[in-house]
Structure formats: C-alpha cells, structure tokens
Amino acid sequence: MVKSVLSSSVNYLCTFVIFSSRTHFCTNVSRTTSDIVVSTSKGDVRLVKEDAAPVYYKPKGEGQSGFELVPWKNGEMIANYVLFEASMEKAKVPWNDYKRMTKDERTIYMKHLKAIEERKLTYKDPFTGYVVFTVSHHLHRGNCCGNGCRHCPYGLENAPENVKKSRKWNGAFYV
Question: What Pfam family is a match, any one (predicted)?
C-alpha cells in the first residue's frame, strides 16, 4: 500500500510504502517565484510553471472532434473509442424519462443502446424493419442533416419548422 502525506508546516511530501515500517521516499518541496523545486534522495528537480504542458485529450486538429470510423469484420466500419464514448454519453436517459416511455419506446431505446454498445452506425427498427441511424452516425457526420432523424443529437437545428413541430423528444429520442 502506498500513502502520500504533505505536511504544510515543513513542506515535506513523504510517500510511505506500507509493508514495513520504513519510509521509502521523502521529498522537500519548496517554491521560488513561479517554480517548484522538489528535493529527492536522487537530487533536486525544478518544475518550471511556464514550461508545463496540459495533460488532457487534445483533438487532432482545430475544430476536429476526433470522431472516426475504424474497420471491423467483413469491411464494416464502426465507431472509434472517442466516438463510442460520446455516443454512450448522449444515449444516457434519466430514470424519470425512461419510466414515462411506452413499452414500444423502451424497446426502440434498448435496440439503439445495444447498437451503440456494439459501436454500430445503424440498427433495424424492431417494428417497421427500417434501418435507422444511431447517434454515433449523427455525431460522426458533425451536424444536423435537417431530415428530422430519430436520434439527432443536435436538437433538429437544421430541420424545417414543420418537421420540428411534428417531432417530440421523449427523453431518449424523437417520436
């Protein structure tokens, strides 16, 4: 077990490895104007704030989302991991919304969710037999196509007013 303790009174950061009663690593942390100097048993390490780089996911280019399709079995293209994660986030439905759905709406929601989990771009509607685009497909496209799609993640922003008025959001998709 590893335990780290920072003592504010003496500015020591000690990390203990608890399998014996010995301290295996102890550092003295001091500050200069904008630098942090960490003294270790191997010597001082100077951390310059101005040279620091952020540590987070950075899209591949300005204005690009990182959403891509990757090859799968038999030449099928599926969502990459970044697109999969975004799709799963968009597909979340609060319990109160799920509870208000009809039995048929729940069936459609579960069919859509299964398709997203498999990183698919389409699924077959269980009632009509039509092929329906998943939210993954729409996110990959990057904007609303204006057709009033069931799983549009863009709020039907490019759809004509008559289409917007004819569709109602049930908490999971447009009906």
Answer: DUF5522
Evaluate whether residue 64 is within a structural domain: no
pTM above 0.85, yes or no: no
Q: Give per-residue pLDDT as tens, 111-168.
A: 999 999 999 999 999 999 999 999 999 999 999 999 999 999 999 999 999 999 999 9
CA angle 13, 18, 24 (to 5 degrees): 50
CA distances from 56 to 36, 51, 85 (A): 22, 16, 15
Q: Is residue 171 a part of any domain in this protein?
A: no
Helix 81-90 and helix 103-117: axis angle, to 10°? 160
The answer to whether residue 35 is domain-embedded is yes
Number of domains in the chain: 2
